[in-house]
Design goal:
By secondary structure, this protein is of the alpha/beta class. 36% of the residues lie in helices and 18% in strands. This is Zn-dependent protease.
């Protein structure tokens, strides 16, 4: 009995020691421990609903899920981006590296500039947000990003995505990273969280800077192959 009690405490200690500390502000389904699942449910009340909505899709395909408001939209592949005035040089570098990663796919085309209200745009920003501690553990929000669909129907109809992608500079070591910028830009372009660790859209930062086959597949679903949409 004493041995079993000692083993339990060692196991709990290791679990705490290896809980990843960098997450963005929209945790979604992950599937490697029930303890971490419960912790994420405390942050995201919609966790179970999201799991149910994406489970059927992921059984038949490993493509990264797509944000609900982007699904079935006809979006042009070209985006115009700009930085808020308070974005530091270091943050700009990681954002630009993320932009390059997506441009290299040939599926989307991100260009510097403002564009028009009818065109896709992305605003890159920074913010400072301190996270509350839960016991001896702090789950860090490293960034936030997402799409905003603007749609006009009828005569002269159009659909545009006026998206945003930001880094939480309160935790610069965790947030000012290429992997985080790629993740938040992925949200802006319409990618939702993936349950696969090799995806850049995994909700806890794994340091991934290369888009997975599932990430590429989801981008093609939204934007096509990149050869026809402008």
């Amino acid at each position: 009995m004493r041995y079993q009690g000692w083993l339990t405490w060692v196991t709990l200690g290791l679990a705490v020691a290896f809980i990843p500390m960098a997450v963005d502000s929209k945790p979604a389904p992950i599937n490697f421990s029930s303890q971490l699942t419960r912790l994420i449910e405390q942050i995201d009340p919609n966790f179970k609903t999201t799991t149910q909505q994406t489970q059927k899709r992921e059984i038949s395909s490993q493509d990264t899920p797509i944000e609900a408001i982007v699904q079935n939209r006809q979006l042009a592949r070209t985006y115009y981006y700009h930085f808020d005035t308070d974005v530091s040089a270091g943050a700009k570098i990681v954002f630009e590296n993320a932009i390059s990663t997506y441009n290299q796919t040939g599926i989307v085309k991100l260009l510097p500039g403002s564009g028009t209200g009818r065109q896709n745009s992305i605003t890159f920003f920074v913010y400072s947000k301190r996270m509350p501690s839960e016991g001896n553990t702090t789950m860090i929000e490293s960034g936030h990003g997402g799409p905003q669909i603007i749609q006009q129907t009828g005569w002269n109809a159009y659909t545009a995505n006026h998206a945003r992608a930001g880094l939480n500079v309160y935790y610069p070591a965790a947030a000012i990273r290429k992997s985080v910028a790629i993740h938040e830009l992925g949200h802006a372009l319409g990618l939702d969280h993936s349950r696969y660790r090799n995806s850049v859209m995994y909700p806890i930062d794994q340091g991934n800077t290369n888009l997975s086959a599932g990430d590429i597949g989801a981008l093609k679903t939204i934007y096509g192959s990149g050869e026809t949409k402008k």
